[in-house]
Protein: Inositol 2-dehydrogenase
Amino acid sequence: GTLGVAVVGAGRMGADHVRRIDRVISGARVAAVADVDGERAKAVADGVAGCTAYTDPAAAIAAPGVDAVLVASPGPAHEAALTEALARGLPVLCEKPLTPDAASALRVVRAEERLGRRLVQVGFMRRYDAEYLRLKALLDGGGLGRALMLHQRHRNASSPPWFTGEMLLADSVVHEMDATRWLLGQEITAVTVMRPRPSGNAPEGLDDPQFVVFETDGGALADVEIYVNCRFGYQVQAEAVCENGTARIGDAHGMLVSTGGRWGGSIAPGFEERFEDAYDRQVRAWVDAALCGEVTGPGCWDGYAAAAVCEAGLRSRAEGRRVEVELVERPALYD
Ligand code: ISE
Structure:
């Protein structure tokens, strides 16, 4: 069969997912699109055969032919859409963050727990990136010994005008919060956020870059440099330092060109380009699983854990000290 998808949110990510489901992925079709901006919803829906536009997410989720929901609205709108989808027993792919804070993320965890089965996949798409997968397989294989440290760099060419100092953590470093937990198979127990004197490239008042240190329950340390106005392109790098060796990803993508007495390559302009394959693989995996009545990939527990780490990070940034992460006990559903 074909999976009928309601896409909630027709912004940058929502519109891109509509394109992906419509033209890249097989096995699914976009049946409904919702956006608070009706014009925007209509513009996106008009490009897709058999797709209806809505302003109310609940109406799109309840629309005929909808078997699954892709949530790509702003974070504060996620909980309502998730609650609606869970009430209807529909599988969901929810863009990060699951919800903006740990308390609301925990409510979603509890709702899923009450259902007794997983329905939600969270859009931590780096878990589907070929380089990340290779690093994960290497670490899991154990050939390099135990991972001692992770060094991560996350650079965006520029930040959107509404970006705040909190968003460097909640919107950007949230990917490393998940990647660190996933790569190491450990929970993050404490966060320290430090800030150098801001870059002259950063908009007035934005504390960019920031430097974040995670401690984990397995005794590892992970650092993250987040710099969202680096100008030169989009760059995401990770290096694992293990007992018997190191492994690095994100240094070069694709082709190396030599000409005019220089050698070099190019840097992707943004995350859509850098992680294009990862986004495709993520949505394909979600659709394939949903067609078999299954849900795989990062779930509500991962979304909740990232939200809890994020809260600790925001407190650390505000208070200038190390802050411990508070997690409830992990429900058996997520073992
Ligand atoms: C954005 O929301 C993302 O998810 C990107 O992956 C990240 O690089 C960017 O900094 C965020 O704003």
Observations:
- DSSP finds ten helices and 15 strands in the chain.
- The mean pLDDT is 97.
- The first strand starts at residue 3 and ends at 8.
